[in-house]
Amino acid sequence: MKLSTNQSQRPVTTAISQNGNLMIGGCDTVELAKKYSTPLYVLDEATIRSTIADYKSAFSSYPDTNIMYASKALCTKAVATLLDSEGLGFDTVSAGEFYTFYKSGVNMAKVLFNGNNKTAEELELALDLGVGRISVDNFYELSLLNTIAEHKGRVADILLRVTPGIECHTHEYIQTGHLDSKFGFDLTQIDSAIELILQKYNHLKIHGLHAHIGSQIFETSIYPDEIEILCFEISRIAKKFGLRLNEINMGGGFGVKYVDTDVPPSIYEIGKLVTDKLKQCIEKYNIPPPTLFLEPGRSIISPAGVTLYTIGSSKQVPHGRKFVSVDGGMADNPRPSLYHAQYSAQIANKKSSSKTETITICGRYCESGDVLIKEIELPKTEAGDILCVYNTGAYNYSMASNYNRVPRPAMVLVKDGHSDLIIKRETWEDLIKNDIVP
Ligand SMILES: Cc1ncc(COP(=O)(O)O)c(C=O)c1O
């Protein structure tokens, strides 16, 4: 099966310069660190475009497929503009996310608003800004959205988020499609929801079903299972209620390769399994071909991103391990402390030499759990070296905090040897700008 970018640990443009420095997007990462300071998020445009090309080609045998980038992975105006230029739609889970797309000039009909506890204020704004679909998660929200739409004299275009009862093997915090989950309607609750929409909630128009099984998934068999369940439900609803649903949103969750032992499936394999299954189900259940929506987040943006840090202090524990500290850590990348996520890294200014050491890379934050990489073999490190951590494009900046009152890092987009600042580094002044002393 053809390889796709989610199966590579590094951006597609990763190279070594003549002087031995790590290059990404044609830019010398040591020079980037000097120019923009560290920690620095670096995003490689070529990797993002190549991933999207993989998706488009992998699902091309079912032409009515729409890729909705799950913007929780990384949501900035530059990312919105870039992905919009590729024709993607957008999955959002807060007003902050869909407002970013609105301010980036995206056609809001291509935006979906999803989430298990959307506020009334957010739902109002979604209707006002013309968000294309709202994926309604529960009975409370059906009633709330209907009331808001009625007050505005509008009809809200919705999907129903359902929990298909599929367990996947990923970290329990990022499983969502199993029955004991806070997300979506249980399959046994769908009929009551449809009855309410058809008989009581005149300001809701339902277009389809939405599911999402989990994140960082390596199993392939669960996607055809999910398609089977969604198609079965669509045919059952058509028979029982005479209601034709034209849209299936299968969510995202496609895995990436953080470390050598990760073996995510190719997007091409997933594309073939899903589109074959969908075509079979259309025949089997005799349903009109629905529009298929996918919501990849991590797999679109993670491999394109790296974080550059400067190495500072180190500590050799007598008869124990060696800790090497960098100038960032759990506030710019909370995933290792949240999920025990693993990462790979390289010293950007040193050729891989035979003289290596096994070290623990820790952050600068006041928590013993602030460890970025537990054990890694790298060329002998010294203060001032630049460490490049791979696959940090997703769920790093978007989950970053100001813990310990440290400003969040800057982000640059690199392409063909050129770099553009796309997120400014926060200043100490930014940190106190909302403080009020009564
Ligand atoms: C509904 C929904 N869609 C899409 C995604 C994106 O998942 P991933 O970034 O793993 O592709 C998520 C992530 O949790 C999600 O909750």
Explain this structure.
By secondary structure, the chain is of the alpha/beta class. The chain folds into two domains: 5-43 and 304-432, Lyase, Ornithine Decarboxylase, Chain A, domain 1, CATH 2.40.37.10; 59-301, Alanine racemase (TIM Barrel), CATH 3.20.20. Helix content is 29%, strand content 24%. Strands 4, 14, 15, 16, 17, 18, 19, 20 and 21 form a nine-stranded mixed beta sheet that branches. The longest helix has 20 residues, at 222-241. Residues 70, 72-73, 91, 114, 176, 212, 215-216, 251-254, 295-299 line the site of pyridoxal-5'-phosphate (PLP).
Structural class: alpha/beta
Q: Largest sheet at a glance? A: 9 strands, mixed
**Average residue-wise pLDDT:** 95
Global morphology: globular
| C-alpha Rg (nearest Å) | 23 Å
**Top-tier CATH class of the largest domain:** Alpha Beta
- Quote the CATH topology of the largest domain: TIM Barrel
Helical percentage: 25-40%
Strand content: 15-25%
Query: What's the CATH H-level superfamily name of the largest domain?
Result: Alanine racemase
Which CATH architecture of the largest domain? Answer: Alpha-Beta Barrel
| Strand element count | 21
Helices, by number, come to: 12
Q: Low-confidence spans: pLDDT under 50, at least 5 residues?
A: none
- Chemical compounds bound to the protein: pyridoxal-5'-phosphate
Number of domains: 2
* Spatial separation of the terminal alpha carbons: 63 Å
